[in-house]
Amino acid sequence: MKKVFLALLAALGFQVNAAAQNSFENVDVEHFERIIKSDSVQIVDVRTPEEYASGHIAGALNLNVQDSTFKSQALAKLDKARPCAVYCRSGKRSALAASILAAEGMKVINLLGGIIAWVEAGKPTTKD
């Protein structure tokens, strides 16, 4: 009986973990571009300030996910009622940021391939 109970708990744990991993949407460049054209979407660049200054998507807010205050800054500056479109250099840091924001109840869209994929697709960046 104990083994059956442990097996059920383990199966439940795997299901909860899988659900947590899919708490945000990963999209390609074309889909990301369509999404960020909406006025209701918040664009968040989660790279370092130096990376952001070298070129970013117009209208993006820079919140460095590697900063220890990322979560508190994000909660202070972002509207939880509006979707967030996040990106980084290659997609790894933005996936981490997306997980953090989604855990706070936000709807999050992550750009697969990051700004590298964006630039390779010929999409514009700015240094404003």
TrEMBL record:
The keyword Signal applies. Residues 1-18 form the signal peptide. This is Rhodanese domain-containing protein. Residues 37-127 form the Rhodanese domain. It comes from the Bacteria. It comes from Prevotella histicola F0411. PROSITE patterns: RHODANESE_3. Pfam families: Rhodanese. Keywords: Signal.
